[in-house]
Design goal:
2 copies of one chain form a homodimer.
Chain A (H helix, E strand, L loop, with lengths): L1 H10 L1 H12 L11 H18 L3 E5 L6 E6 L7 E7 L19 E3 L2 E3 L7 H18 L5 E7 L9 H7 L1 H4 L3 E4 L11 E6 L1 E10 L5 E2 H4 L6 H10 L22 H9 L5 H5 L12 H7 L2 E10 L8 E2 L2 E10 L5 H15 L5 E6 L7 E2 L5 H14 L4 E5 L4 H10 L3 E3 L15 E3 H19 L2
Parallel strand pairs in A: 3-6, 3-7, 7-17, 8-16
Antiparallel strand pairs in A: 1-2, 2-6, 4-5, 5-18, 8-15, 9-13, 9-14, 10-12, 11-13
């Protein structure tokens, strides 16, 4: 089946690229309230295309914010059902003057399509639709049942998505989920992303005197809140980057040697070169790759108190604040970890000060699917077939909230089929996407959906 | 001799207060370039008055900034020479709307003279001149030789004072120095301030990655500079407020039991009430009074790095900075202490980051005169005589740079005869000075200068 589909895609490539250009030309900037008509144009583009392809049901759904496109094809009797998620909204394009070609006038240069959204996420969404078109045109059917949701608020925090998913849980139930909103570790290297980290956080403010005090008159009598904060933070991690908070690691997964091998074999960044640090600083007993992919972190995202201007101001500041976030791995419960942080702070605050804690309301569990899961193995085989190279299996230190939501709500594996590259300039001027990845990526998808339809 | 002088001061009190009002009415705000004429008026007021009193030599000296008033009386043959320092400039008075009476229209209410400069320092300078007048009018002579410098740049950092003192070292040489630019521990309690702290400082910036990094993608690979800074600061002081920096305490004075007794007997602040802290936090083995007066301090004056806005930004900041200052006690060399801090930072910086240190160029040694020095005992007796209460002996955690300069340059004791009170609102709206302290303070001065003239 895949061969004829690939043939179709090859023969129709220039027409499909033109169609993609038309999609990319729509200025669907979700954060810009003056672009509501453009958002509607994108919705119309998608619903028209999905109708043309031959989906059974194609609908524009209200969410309370920007509309969401829903479509379904349920005629693959006996085959599993895929829930495809994507987003049609894009980041703003300013500063426009830094673009070599206009962000909404797609242009191919040096083998890349330059346009806002080429990689994130309109380009990757379009690839799925083009493959569905090719399958319908060549075989008259899709190898799996497909439910599609394409939202318009991803770049502004997906405010209405969770509510929509919960309200339409039965309608959206599927056997697995597919998302193409990520990338490969490097151009040309197939990458199976099988895990993401969870997230929790809080802000702690150490309060001392009710006003900034003269450091001469009060130094020695009054505990300095900035020093107290430093001392408090220093109790949370030792010099070997081990997090020293009771309960933080409760129920944490054990990293297997097999997984460590996968991670360390994956191509990685040369951190000193890419970030300018003198050396990496992973947790004792783990490599930087292992720590970023599979060990929890605790980071000070911001720190402030007292005088920040030029020169000297001899005060004891009245307070000092640190913003902290943790990235979590499978097994860790975000609320339990946040409670452990709060408890640690409350029990380790130095004498002479008081602490005030603001809990970060957003949180997420880590997501992980077994890299040996048949669907991931099928995905890996599909990549290898198209790219001519074995796929690497990686986890990512970041979080993609929708993945965790789908995982929790539908209890199904999420297959992350990313085709982006580190050079795509997501959210920046001159966003682009390699034409070759458009081509090979569609081959991967054709192969994958076909394989997924087979028992 | 003192009795007739006191009699004169009493009989002339209302005229002297009118004269003080005229001095306080001059808007001698040194930082305000539109007030140059007012600065000249203050100079003229002082030179006219000093000439009227009968000083031998009364001069307006150029400094490169605001002029300085110099005067001398050298006819007390065989008697020691006093170098009196004061300043005629004042702080700005804004916000004017917070003053109950206009800042440059002196008004007596509830036993206090309300005006900018009433306490700091025109009021206290005038008291010395009035006593000199009384002595000349009643006895035709002063009991000591007197050299007077009254500068116009104290409130803007005394930029030209050190140069002036050095250039005129021979002219200004004296046997002791007298300054009335400080206060008493509480209204009505004679206070001998016999020590001030020195000062050094630096700013340390911990550098990590060359830009803020995504905390998910890089957390675990790259050392967090804000956490590194916290860990570094935490190595400088233990939980018992002991400074743990090699070399910091070198050559430090040992606090005698006699001094401890003096300090602990002095009236002091109820810190939790006055500052709102839950409890005091002095160094282990010392009381809050002992630590503020006589133990060195290390304070974080400011702390900053990364995100400071609302909510969460999941970054690893590229750098974090702390501003540190130390107050020093006798024996400590500011440069040696700064070197010790630098060495500590360089040897304790965590792996994975680099540190950049900016040394604070200003520094000062501590100042201390033996509380048993005959001049201080004479000062104490003079206070006790006038106020009817025994003087308390205290040291102060703050620094008065001119005291340390005079000490270093002339190698003479500096007698700090302060008459201000904690309620004077220095540098704030509604500055005031108690009329009773004007009256009693002049008695103290009459008594002190007389005693100082006697061998």
């Amino acid at each position: 089946m895949a061969d004829s589909v690939q043939q179709y895609l090859k023969e129709n490539e220039s027409r499909l690229l033109e169609q993609l250009d038309a999609f990319l030309a729509i200025e669907s900037i979700s954060t810009d309230s003056s672009k509501k008509e453009e958002m509607e144009k994108a919705v119309t583009f998608l619903t028209d295309y999905l109708n043309d392809i031959g989906f059974d049901r194609v609908e524009r759904h209200e969410t309370g914010g920007h509309p969401l496109v829903y479509a379904e094809y349920m005629q693959a009797e006996g085959a599993p059902t895929a829930l495809f998620y994507g987003h049609y909204d894009v980041q703003p394009a300013d500063p426009y003057e830094l673009w070599e070609s206009a962000p909404f006038s797609p242009e191919v240069r040096n083998g890349r399509i330059y346009a806002r959204g080429a990689s994130d996420d309109k380009g990757q969404v379009f690839m799925h639709l083009a493959v569905f078109e090719a399958m319908m045109k060549t075989n008259g059917r899709l190898p799996v049942n497909v439910k599609i949701i394409i939202e318009g608020e991803e770049e502004i925090g997906s405010e209405h998505l969770n509510g929509y998913l919960e309200q339409n849980k039965d309608m959206l139930q599927a056997d697995f989920s597919v998302i193409s909103d990520s990338g490969m570790v490097e151009s040309g290297t197939p990458t199976i992303l099988y895990g993401l980290k969870g997230f929790t956080g809080l802000e702690v403010t150490v309060h001392g005197p009710s006003r900034d005090l003269h450091s001469g008159l009060y130094g020695g009598a009054v505990k300095n809140p900035a020093m107290a904060l430093a001392q408090l933070l220093a109790t949370m991690k030792n010099e070997e980057e081990e997090i020293t908070i009771d309960g933080f690691h409760d129920n944490i997964e054990t990293l297997t040697e097999a997984e460590r091998k996968l991670m360390n074999e994956a191509p990685g960044e040369n951190y000193p070169v890419s970030t300018g640090v003198p050396e990496t600083a992973p947790e004792k007993g783990y490599t930087a790759k292992e720590h970023t992919m599979a060990r929890p972190t605790l980071e000070v995202n911001g720190l402030f108190g007292g005088y920040q201007g030029d020169g000297t101001k001899t005060i004891i500041p009245s307070k000092a604040t640190a913003k902290l976030t943790s990235r979590l791995v499978p097994g860790q419960d975000p609320v339990h970890v946040q409670n452990a942080l709060v408890h640690h702070i409350e029990t380790h605050a130095p004498a002479g000060v008081t602490v005030d804690i603001k809990r970060e309301p957003l949180s997420a569990r880590a997501y992980k699917v077994d890299p040996d899961h048949p669907l991931l193995q099928k995905a890996a085989a599909s990549y290898a077939e198209a790219f001519g190279r074995e796929a690497v299996f990686v986890r990512m230190g970041g979080s993609i909230p929708v993945v965790e939501t789908i995982d929790q709500l539908f209890q199904v594996p999420v297959v992350l089929l990313g085709f982006g590259t580190p050079e795509d300039n997501l959210h920046s001027p001159n966003e682009s996407f390699p034409v070759e990845h458009f081509r090979l990526g569609m081959d991967v998808l054709a192969h994958f959906y076909t394989e997924a339809g087979e028992k």
